[in-house]
Amino acid sequence: MISTNERSTTGTNKKISVIMGVYNQNNFRILFDAVNSILNQTYSNFEFLIYNDGSNPEVSEELLRLSGLDKRIRILSSAENHGLAYALNVCIDNADGEYIARMDDDDISLPDRFEKQINFLENNPQYSWCGTSALLFDNSGIWGRRIMVEIPEAADYLRYSPYIHPSVMFRSDALRKAGGYHSSVRTLRCEDYELFMRMTMDGYKGFNLQLPLFMYREDINNVHRRKLRFRIDETRLRLCYFRKLGILFPFGWIYVLRPLAGFFIPDFLLHHIKRNETA
C-alpha cells in the first residue's frame, strides 16, 4: 500500500544532504534564487553541498559570498571542470544525511518540497527515491507544467527519463549501493537517465509525487539542440539498457533511435512537439 496522504507526518527529523554542481553560472540572480529556494524549505534539517566545478573567479567569489548566508551551506571546489556526474559523486562522498536531494543552479524548489518528499519516503520504505512533477518557467514566468508518471515502469524509459532529475530525493544508502553516477564521456548529458535505468534494473523502485513541488527552468521559445556526439552516446546508452531492461523488442528499438532522429527534425516541429508534451 502506498501512502501519499499530504497531511500525514512521520515526526522525523532525519538529515537531508542537498547536492548541487555549479559551473560558471554567471547570472547571479538566478543562482541566488536557486540557493534561496533551498534555504526557505519548511523542512530545515539539511546540509547544502555545492560543488564549484572549476568556475571562473567571479562565480567562485559569488559562491563564497552565498555560503555566508547560512551555516548549512558547504562549498566543495575544484580548480578544473570535471562535469556534473563527477561533481555530484564528490558531494555524495561528503554527504552525511540519510537522504540525498538533488538541485540545479537555475531551478527553484517550492517551500514544501523536502517536507513532502521525506514524508513520502518515510511512509513508503519500498521506494528508494522520490521525484515530483514540475512547473515550467523561463524569464517571462510560468508557461506550463510537466506531470510525471506516478510509478514508472521499465517501459516508461522508452521516450525519455520518467524522472525530473533535480527534483529527486534519494535514500542515501540506496544511491551509494548503486554506485552513484557513472562519470564517463559516454554518459555526459545523460548521467541521470543512466542512473535511473541502472537502479531500476537492479531492483530499486522510484515514485513521482504528482504535485508540482519544483520549478524547472526551460525557455518556451528555445529548442535545445544537443551536439551530435551526445546524441550518439545516448543512442548507445538506450540500446544497452533497453536490452537489459527487456524493453528493446518489439518496439523499443524504434525509441533507441529517438536522439538521432531529433537531430534532423526542423526547429518549428520540435517546438510544436515541446508544446504538446506539456500540460
UniProtKB/TrEMBL annotation:
One of its GO terms (molecular function) is glycosyltransferase activity. The chain crosses the membrane at residues 245-265. It holds the Pfam family Glycos_transf_2. InterPro entries: Glyco_trans_2-like, Glycosyltransf_2, Nucleotide-diphossugar_trans. Residues 17-151 form the Glycosyltransferase 2-like domain. Keywords: Glycosyltransferase, Membrane, Transferase, Transmembrane, Transmembrane helix. Belongs to the glycosyltransferase 2 family. This is Glycosyltransferase 2-like domain-containing protein. It comes from Bacteroides pectinophilus CAG:437.
